[in-house]
Amino acid sequence: MKKMIPTQNREKQILYILSILILFIFGFNNYMQEWKLSHPTTNKKTSSSSSTKDPPRERTKKQQYHVEVRHPPEGVGVPLVYEHIVDVVNRPTAPYPPGRDDKKKGKVRRRRRRRRLEEKEEEKKEEKEGEEEDAEVEDADADVDVDADADADADADVNKEEDTDLNDLIKPTTDIDEKEEETEEEEEEAEEEEEEDTSDNTAIPIFWHIERSGGSSITRVLGSCLSLVQASAIPSFYNHPLPTMLSVARISDQKYVTVDLTAPAGIHHAKNTGLLTTFHYLTDLIVTHMPYTIAQDLLDGEHKGRLFVLLRHPIHMALSLFNHLQHLPQHHPQFDGTLKNMQIHDWVLHHPTFPDNILLRTILGYNHDPFPRALTEVDLNTAKYILKTKVIIGLLEQKGPSMERFMNYFMWDDHSPFQNQARVDECMERALHWGWYHKSPPSDYYDHFRQEVMNEESSLFLLMKQKNMFDFELYEYAKYLFWWQGMELELD
Q: H helices within 202-252, ranges in order?
């Protein structure tokens, strides 16, 4: 027994040393992975040396997104109501509304007009040739008694002339046929291009305005800086009946169509008064809180739309909403006196104004249910697929680049109403970065609970995340789509 004790101790020491080495290797490996993720420049260098076939832009983009996201599984589709929203990959080739003096369309119209004139001339020519043939037949019948030899000589002369005429006309006729074929092909191509351009460029931009997510600042940029006419809701027409005839009203430095697209009744009124039919070019874009209702009740096969949105982190959006509700005046329709001195914990737990996965419910049309329905993974995957295929994503935390993407995608940057581009840039800088439009004033209590909520380990943060778990995941997926669209659509 005395000799076996040192052997057992030695084995224990070896096992102890091996376990320490294994732990050290695992720890070092994890450290290196975290270090690589925190140093993207190193990843770029290694990727450039390892793969030389990919273009530098694509390599750089792939290195920028490290967060893993859950993609919707195969078989998930877009609800039928969104069939009239154009896919994001089908970019417009001209700004909306379509140019009325489009050279390509004018060229197509001229080609069609010229083609019709040529067809009429050919019909007249055929009629004249038919009349001449009839006259020749009558003359031939009248000359039946003419001498046979003279007839033979005449026939021989006619045959010679016809042969020479045919020989002379073979090449020109072939050339004419080739030119006609080329003209027809060019006309068909131009008509196809016209049809494609019409289907793409007549889809009206639709801004999905989410409350407390920076949407008011975006609409201010579009209306004040770019002078785009909006179909949303005229501020001065709140609680007043809308006119039966559509027109454009100027409120301050912005222009609005006399409709109200913030409620289902207003959307039906806009459709009945012909917002997208009789007055197809009266507005430059639609602004609404209800994209589902717009797609369902306003759009159709002839009048399509393109959806874009500015998203905000669900926690930040909820905090901004709580602060906004506490500072509302008494005459405001959303005023609630019980919120004035309410603690944020009580608001999250008990008050009906706390947002309950509002992003998911809005995009699926569940936000107007009389009784909130239980959400499922199927709803989440459907919403993800809608965002991926039908919505141009912008992020409030990237508000400057997001606005540039909107302008790039819809080609608003190429057709500025101002001759002085510096004025547009100054207007956008003031609207986007000099303070948010409609921003509620902060308070000491707001700053206090804001610091608490920003701590991801706090009970308040975890509570709000639990009550908005679908919106949390949807927002993380939207952040991935923001990166993906910048790469695939080349919007940056």
A: 215-220
What pLDDT is recorded for position 296? Answer: 96
State how far the alpha carbon of 15 is from the alpha carbons of 8, 27, 164, 488, in Å: 11, 18, 109, 53
Length of the chain counted residue by residue: 492
Half-sphere exposure in the Cβ direction for 329 (13 Å, CA): 2
Joined tokens for residue 113: 């007009």
pLDDT, position 133: 76
Domain boundaries, the chain: 103-199, 204-228+284-488
Query: What is the DSSP code string of 245-272?
Result: S--EEEETTEEEES-BTTSHHHHHHHHH
Tokens 């509700």 locate to: 325
Place of tokens 């040192």: 6
Tokens of 364: 């699926």
Weakly modelled stretches of the chain, pLDDT under 70: 1-8, 26-27, 29-66, 99-117, 137-200, 235-240, 278-280, 414-419, 435-449
Overall pTM surpassing 0.70 (yes/no) = no
Rounded Cα gap, residues 377 and 147, in angstroms: 100
Q: Any idea of the CA torsion for 385, 388, 390, 393, to the nearest 10 degrees? A: 130
CA-closest candidate to residue 314, choices 348, 358, 372: 358
The C-alpha atoms of residue 380 and residue 484 are separated, in whole angstroms, by: 19
Q: Are 394 and 371 in contact (CB under 8 A)?
A: no
The pLDDT of residue 44 is 39
- The candidate with the shortest Cα–Cα distance to 227, out of 424, 93, 426, is 424
Half-sphere exposure of 231 (CA within 13 A, CB side): 26
Query: Which of 204, 401, 213 minimizes the C-alpha distance to 306?
Result: 204
Number of other residues whose CB lies within 10 A of the CB of residue 269: 19
What is the distance between the alpha carbons of residues 327 and 336, in angstroms, rounded to a whole number?
Answer: 10
486, two tokens: 């910048």
What was the pLDDT predicted at 19?
77
Q: Is 424 helix (H, G, I), strand (E, B) or coil?
A: helix
Which of 3.40.50, 2.60.40, 1.10.10, 3.10.450 would CATH assign to domain 204-228+284-488?
Answer: 3.40.50
